[in-house]
């Protein structure tokens, strides 16, 4: 590169290179759309982990040979792939069960229900919605149903299931609630046909089902509802099998405790009258990310979260056990017993085992991404 180039000329070359990158990304998205149409026609899933892993490994190797940081190309490609998965939705999905009758989503005008209405329609099914004002037509709406999905607030799930009219014998009855045991019991009692419990581990604002976890709990006649799970696999979902008891116990930690501690921390910040702008100014990437996750909670519907937090009677007992452990840790600090604190720390570290280093690596990527978005223009 000539030494005579000044800063403006160098910046212009960077701008020209960025324009070339934009053209290449546009070309890549067009190719992805063509791939989506092919997958839709041939019934292939949106997300194929083996293909993704193989492609990333090749690009990393090629980048290293070219003197480009492998992490850089992986970051760029992962972001491009996320957009690609969303783009592939536009092509629709192959219909796993072309002979299926209607799919009825109870609560299909709510945000989560509407998402599943959209996905089943993209998959070629006739989808009907049974909302709060449609119960006078409920028997008519479910009369030709092959699948009925209940997507209503947690505290109304059981009564909604019990209110359903008699379903066709071969119709699959499913729910989307985050508390499984009461819903599963109600579905099995209300319907003699196939039953499956579903819990999407995501909110309604996702752009793609690719890599998103859906937990399923077997109820009855799995061979008759397997097409529902296969359809969700085509959307790119990662299906995880559980049972009602394990699901609810795990959700106490994964959802209820996490949301409750975020709520309590937000309350504490308010009671301390913390200056959020100054907290951000003083923040390391990890604290900024933690603060963002707490703040995210308070940007959403409080009624949804109080339902999740109070849904299972065991949750309060879990919170009390957490408080007991918090108190034990606080007592160590009050006693000034550094050795005991270190000993307890190492015991927990040993319990985490190899997951500790795995989480350290994963969190490093998250922290870098969070740091990249920081601006200091306040």
TrEMBL record:
- Coiled-coil-forming residues are none
One Pfam family hit: PDH_N
The Chorismate mutase domain is annotated at 1-92
Cellular location(s): Cytoplasm
- Which pathway is recorded for this entry? Metabolic intermediate biosynthesis; prephenate biosynthesis; prephenate from chorismate: step 1/1; Amino-acid biosynthesis; L-tyrosine biosynthesis; (4-hydroxyphenyl)pyruvate from prephenate (NAD(+) route): step 1/1
Keyword Amino-acid biosynthesis in annotation: yes
Q: Name a single GO biological process.
A: tyrosine biosynthetic process
Residues of the signal sequence?
none
From the UniProt record, which GO molecular function terms apply? chorismate mutase activity; NAD+ binding; prephenate dehydrogenase (NAD+) activity; prephenate dehydrogenase (NADP+) activity
Stated name of the protein? T-protein
